[in-house]
Design goal:
With 334 residues, the chain is α/β, with parallel strands linked by helices. It has 10 helices and 14 strands. Helix content is 28%, strand content 23%. Helix 2 (38-50) links the parallel strand 1 and strand 2 (53-60). It binds flavin-adenine dinucleotide (FAD). Flavin-adenine dinucleotide (FAD) is lined by residues 226-228, 252-255, 266-271, 283-285, 287, 289-290, 293, 304-306, 309, 322-324.
Length: 334
């Protein structure tokens, strides 16, 4: 049995249609100019729970393809496109003046983005400029002003009512079913983006790690390894298993800190939050900071040689075994 409550899907967001009509939400799209990040689909789904009109801001450089994708989402009334060289790298510093200007013009009741690295950098700055409190890590929407959020690394669930005139809300992608992004034909309008270039922060460049495996936060199956793997070379056991299952590979912080794998694989409080259909934890003890990143997975399987390992308390299926024997056997049988 799971120790923790599951996601916001269980928090019924039932409030009157009349109240919903008064809402207007600005969703901040996360994208790479060409395509939307999956988190945007989750943010749009959360905005739909709030009800009322939904506008989506797509700010970037030559971001036509991303804005066209947004316009196809049913329930989105308007796509606001802003293009400027200043948005290279999508820095919070350059985007904030744009969002504040959009808010001043349109007086939204809610500004919503995904609780990703992008949203976590952006929304507190936007909220500060609007002199309101940001509402972070939202996992449920009870009404237009009442949100359910995860606090203390997932150890407690808080229900809070925000009194601010505009609610600046970061939603966890794992808690809102992705919008299908079909059936809509939203109008597109452009917004001037002068004055967004910043002297203090300049985007220099980025190096993105490439992998043929699915992206960790959107994968349906994740195979994660911990200190029990004992070396980076031994992670090959997990890569082989992951390839058979079309899974993404994740890791505990101990495995990252030991240099077995790169830190973009880290799952947990200070890593990525995942909620796949199937999470297989191999040689991971189940520290609370790791659980904070994966406990909402639909089915959790743990392979650990220590029957007392805390991971077994959240696992749906547990295998007390030596991973060096169990994992190749499992891969062989698939
Ligand atoms: C502020 C803070 C933030 C943190 N953030 C994160 C985070 O985001 N993510 C995260 O993961 N951790 C995080 N941590 C660290 C966390 O507390 C744990 O230290 C870490 O998760 C332990 O990783 P582990 O389970 O791989 O290692 P260990 O706790 O050392 O567990 C290794 C496990 O492998 C098992 N094992 C060993 N050999 C075998 C074998 N041959 N076969 C089968 N099983 C075997 C052992 O029985 C053991 O249970 C954070 C800590 C702090 C203080």
């Amino acid at each position: 049995m799971k120790m923790f409550s599951k996601t916001s899907r269980q928090f019924g967001a039932q409030f009157s249609n009349q109240a919903k009509r008064l809402q207007s939400t600005l969703v901040i799209a996360e994208h790479d100019n060409k395509a939307l990040s999956p988190i945007t689909q989750h943010a749009i789904a959360a905005a739909k729970k709030l009800g009322g009109e939904i506008s989506v801001l797509v700010a970037g450089t030559k971001c036509g393809p991303a804005s066209e994708a947004v316009a196809k989402a049913s329930g989105v009334t308007k796509v606001i496109v802003a293009e400027n060289e200043a948005f290279k790298g999508f820095t919070a510093e350059s985007l904030t003046p744009l969002i504040v200007a959009a808010q001043k013009k349109n007086n939204y009741t809610h500004i919503v983005a995904g609780a990703s690295a992008f949203g976590k950098a952006l929304l507190p700055r936007v909220a500060a400029k609007l002199d309101v409190s940001p509402v972070s890590d939202v996992i449920g929407i009870k009404s237009a002003d009442t949100f359910v959020r995860s606090i203390y690394a997932g150890n407690a669930i808080q229900t809070l009512t925000a009194k601010d005139p505009v609610k600046v809300v970061a939603v966890r992608g794992t808690s809102f079913e992705a919008d299908s992004m079909t059936g809509g034909s939203a109008a597109t309008e452009t917004m001037p983006a002068d004055g967004c270039a910043q002297d203090m922060t300049v985007f220099v460049g980025q190096e993105l790690s490439k992998s043929d495996r699915p992206e960790l936060t959107s994968a349906k199956v994740v195979v994660s390894g911990g200190r029990g793997l004992k070396s980076g070379d031994n992670f090959k056991l997990l890569y082989d298993l992951a390839d058979k299952m079309k899974a993404a590979v994740g890791a505990s912080r101990a495995a990252v800190d030991a240099g077995y794998v790169a830190n973009d694989l880290q799952v947990g409080q200070t890593g990525k939050i995942v909620a796949p259909d199937l999470y297989i934890a191999v040689g991971i003890s189940g520290a609370i900071q790791h659980l904070a990143g994966m406990k909402d997975s639909k089915t959790i399987v743990a392979i650990n040689k220590d029957p007392e390992a805390p991971i077994f308390q959240v696992a749906d299926y547990g295998l007390v075994a030596d991973l060096f024997k169990a994992v190749p056997e499992l891969t062989g049988k698939l």
